[in-house]
Amino acid sequence: MTDGRFDDLIAEGAAAPVDGWGFDWLAGRATEERPPWGYARLVAARMAAADAALDVDTGGGEVLAEVPSPPRVLVATEGWPPNVPVAARALRRVGATVVAVTPDAPLPFADASFDLVVSRHPVRTDWSETARVLRPGGTFLSQQIGPGTVRELSEAILGPLPPPASRHPEQAVTAATAAGLTVVDLREATLRTVFHDIAAVVWFLRKVVWTVPDFDVDRHRPALARLHRRIEVEGPFVTHARRFLIEATRPA
């Protein structure tokens, strides 16, 4: 049995738009701690010193749009079609060109095109392509999703899961080194994430699709109902996001 409040919240979370990569819709409904290194601030500093820069998997251009001193050449790629026009609008202010790409395809740029490549929460980092488009002495800076991120939420919907096999920082270091890059910085953080109602959970699962692969409101309704009752009785649902920052350079 579910109550009318559950049905209303499910409908609300299912109807809200998830275009772009902003999370403003969750204001007042969910919170997540920020990593201590301040990725946007680091990107802004690197951009101010760059001549030509590339943002891979820009989403809706949320981070790049806030760069106060963009470089002479600024390009962003995005592989999810609904995000491309969102990013194009957001990035007009900084003069960036948005290029629609096919996921897992080679980057559509010449060798040694950029002295800076950045990427926030990439779906997958192609380390050999990153190294190829970097100029000698260039830098790659990325904030990435760590292993087992919001695992408690995934298991609340799917049940017990095996230990995470991918997205470990050590794997990124190995891949970067194999591509000929030198890792100069690696930092990790575990961030408290809180959901105050089931609408926030539904919206989040629709947007961050790898949390529950093939998430479907109707198919996962029994698990959502159990989580809703848990929130109603015990209070907000707490899980933990995992992030790591990696910076690597192409040797000069």
TrEMBL record:
GO biological process, any: methylation
Keywords per UniProt: Methyltransferase, Transferase
Source taxon at top rank: Bacteria
Pfam families: Methyltransf_11
GO molecular function: methyltransferase activity
Annotated Methyltransferase type domain residues: 54-141
Protein name (Swiss-Prot/TrEMBL): Class I SAM-dependent methyltransferase
Organism: Micromonospora thermarum
